[in-house]
Design a protein that fits this description.
It is built from 11 helices and 8 strands. It is of the alpha+beta class. α5 packs across α6.
Length: 295
């Protein structure tokens, strides 16, 4: 089979996944999704499961039950009933049964005190399926060089096991709300310290940052004032899954940097979360990775 034929086939399946992302609260029958991909509904189920390793119905449920925990954990403005209905369930009882099967917690318990290990494990089938057509590839033309301005930030550090960073994110979101620094008015950054693949969990550190233009309250012991210094940066944009930036970071270090002839500055790689899932559908999430380089 020719390369163009394969690419076209995958592009049609990619359209199906994009459609699912954008219509998680609507009818996602075989007929509806196969029509978007321009495939016969008589064969689409087998085509889908053969390519993605999961049936269409299971994929849709995985996608709905990925968005729901994000909203439960990080968006307290939505009730459990609202999240259930927006996830395509007829009511909270059906939603609760499916949620408990997937995450071994009820939605209410997850909102109160999420258990992150079952949540992470449950993402595997969806991540593997999406990697078939939604893995981003990079070229040197994707990298921009810019002068990053000095940016004062409020910092809450997560130190320890990366699997537990959700608890730190919840505390940081609560602090930002209390401080009136929502992402709409205050840019969101992460500063990455030792590589978690090399460091032990006890020294793994990621700084959660919000841009600020005023002094940080002394009544917030977990939050300290900091600054992202001015300087040249190579910038690579990742569109889609923002949970795992390792492929983009590895490409910058392993492919772009040696070919570029640039030298690194003494400041860690950092990222700006331009927009975030679940506020946008997953394939529209945007993260800019900044690699500090010398003048």
């Amino acid at each position: 089979m020719g390369r163009n034929i394969v690419e076209n086939y995958h592009a049609r399946m990619h359209r199906a996944l994009v459609f699912i992302d954008a219509h998680l609260d609507e009818d996602l029958s075989v007929a509806a999704v196969s029509d978007v991909a321009a495939f016969s509904p008589h064969h689409f189920q087998r085509q889908f499961s053969s390519l993605f390793g999961v049936s269409l119905g299971r994929y849709v449920q995985h996608a709905r039950l990925k968005r729901a925990p994000y909203r439960l954990a990080f968006r307290d403005g939505h009730s459990v009933l609202e999240i259930a209905l927006d996830s395509g369930f007829e009511g909270p009882e059906a939603f609760s049964r499916a949620f408990r099967r997937r995450f071994d917690q009820s939605p209410t318990d997850f909102r109160r005190a999420p258990r992150w290990e079952p949540w992470r494990a449950a993402q595997t089938p969806l991540v593997q399926a999406r990697s078939q057509t939604m893995s981003q590839t990079f070229t040197h033309t994707d990298v921009r060089i810019l002068d990053f301005p000095e940016t004062p930030v409020a910092i809450m550090s997560h130190t320890g096991d990366s699997a537990a960073i959700g608890d730190t994110i919840r505390r940081f979101i609560a602090w930002r709300k209390a401080a009136g620094l929502s992402p709409r008015v205050s840019a969101t950054f992460n500063i990455f310290h030792p590589d978690p693949d090399e460091a032990s969990p006890q020294v793994h550190r990621v700084d959660l940052c919000a841009a600020v233009n005023r002094a940080i309250s002394p009544n917030a012991p977990e939050v300290v004032a900091g600054v992202i210094p001015a300087g040249r940066c190579a910038v690579l944009r990742q569109v889609g899954d923002s949970d795992d930036l390792s492929a983009a970071a590895n490409w910058l270090y392993g492919q772009w940097l040696p070919d570029s002839g640039q030298e690194l500055r003494d400041f860690p790689m950092f990222a700006q979360r331009v927009n975030l899932f679940p506020d946008v559908v997953e394939h529209e999430a945007i993260t800019d990775l900044f690699l500090p380089i010398r003048d």
